[in-house]
C-alpha cells in the first residue's frame, strides 16, 4: 500500500516538475520578445488581420468579434491612463492636484496603468483565444451584426471623448514622442553639462 502511495506521489511530483519546466520555458520565450517592440506589434497586427479574415470568410462569430473589440478597447484605455490618477492625487494643503505646472517643479514621468508589454501580451493572447473560439459552432450565435458595430463605435466615441477630456484637464500626454531628450556632453573643464537635444 505504501509503495502505491509513493508511486502516485512521484507521478504527481514528476507532473508538477514537468509543468514548472514548461512554464519556465514559456516565460523565457516571452521574456526574450521584450526588446523587439516593433516586431511584436507587427505580429499582433498580422494576428488581428488573420482573425478578421477568418470572420469575414466564415460570415459568423460576430459576438466573439464584438467581445474581443470591447476587451481591446478596455486594454487601450488602461494603456492611455496614468497609473496614479491625478483626480485622486490631492495635496493636503489646498486639496488640488499635485502635478507639476511650472518648469522649476519636480518632473514626474508618465507611468501607465497598463505597460506596453502587458498591453501587447493581452492583445495577442485574447486574439489567439478569439481565433480558437471561431472553430466552435457553439460560439456562433446569430445576431444582427450592424447593431453590434454601431454600439461598438458609439462606445468607442464616448470612452475616447472622456479619456481625451481627462488628458486635457490634467495636462498629460501618454506618448513620449516630441518630448525633449537630454544628453550630457563634456566641456574643456571636464564638467558634464546637460542640454536638450
TrEMBL record:
<feature type="transmembrane region" description="Helical">
    <location>
        <begin position="63"/>
        <end position="81"/>
    </location>
</feature>
<dbReference type="GO" id="GO:0005783">
    <property type="term" value="C:endoplasmic reticulum"/>
</dbReference>
<dbReference type="InterPro" id="IPR004932">
    <property type="entry name" value="Rer1"/>
</dbReference>
<comment type="function">
    <text>Involved in the retrieval of endoplasmic reticulum membrane proteins from the early Golgi compartment.</text>
</comment>
<comment type="similarity">
    <text>Belongs to the RER1 family.</text>
</comment>
<keyword id="KW-0812">Transmembrane</keyword>
<feature type="transmembrane region" description="Helical">
    <location>
        <begin position="143"/>
        <end position="160"/>
    </location>
</feature>
<dbReference type="GO" id="GO:0006890">
    <property type="term" value="P:retrograde vesicle-mediated transport, Golgi to endoplasmic reticulum"/>
</dbReference>
<dbReference type="GO" id="GO:0006621">
    <property type="term" value="P:protein retention in ER lumen"/>
</dbReference>
<keyword id="KW-1133">Transmembrane helix</keyword>
<dbReference type="GO" id="GO:0000139">
    <property type="term" value="C:Golgi membrane"/>
</dbReference>
<feature type="transmembrane region" description="Helical">
    <location>
        <begin position="39"/>
        <end position="57"/>
    </location>
</feature>
<protein>
    <recommendedName>
        <fullName>Protein RER1</fullName>
    </recommendedName>
</protein>
<keyword id="KW-0472">Membrane</keyword>
<dbReference type="Pfam" id="PF03248">
    <property type="entry name" value="Rer1"/>
</dbReference>
Amino acid at each position: 500500500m505504501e509503495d502505491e502511495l509513493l508511486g502516485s506521489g512521484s507521478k504527481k511530483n514528476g507532473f508538477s516538475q514537468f509543468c514548472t519546466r514548461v512554464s519556465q520555458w514559456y516565460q523565457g520565450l516571452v521574456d526574450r520578445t521584450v526588446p523587439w517592440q516593433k516586431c511584436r506589434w507587427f505580429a499582433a497586427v498580422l494576428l488581428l488581420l488573420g482573425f478578421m479574415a477568418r470572420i469575414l470568410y466564415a460570415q459568423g462569430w460576430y459576438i466573439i468579434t464584438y467581445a474581443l473589440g470591447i476587451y481591446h478597447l478596455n486594454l487601450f484605455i488602461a494603456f492611455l491612463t496614468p497609473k496614479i490618477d491625478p483626480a485622486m492625487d490631492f495635496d493636503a494643503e489646498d486639496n488640488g492636484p499635485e502635478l507639476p505646472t511650472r518648469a522649476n517643479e519636480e518632473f514626474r514621468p508618465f507611468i501607465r496603468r497598463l505597460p506596453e508589454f502587458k498591453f501587447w501580451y493581452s492583445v495577442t493572447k485574447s486574439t489567439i483565444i478569439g481565433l480558437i473560439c471561431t472553430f466552435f459552432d457553439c460560439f456562433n450565435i446569430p445576431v444582427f451584426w450592424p447593431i453590434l458595430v454601431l454600439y461598438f463605435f458609439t462606445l468607442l466615441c464616448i470612452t475616447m471623448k472622456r479619456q481625451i477630456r481627462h488628458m486635457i484637464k490634467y495636462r498629460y500626454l501618454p506618448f513620449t514622442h516630441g518630448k525633449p531628450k537630454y544628453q550630457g556632453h563634456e566641456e574643456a573643464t571636464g564638467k558634464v553639462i546637460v542640454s536638450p537635444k
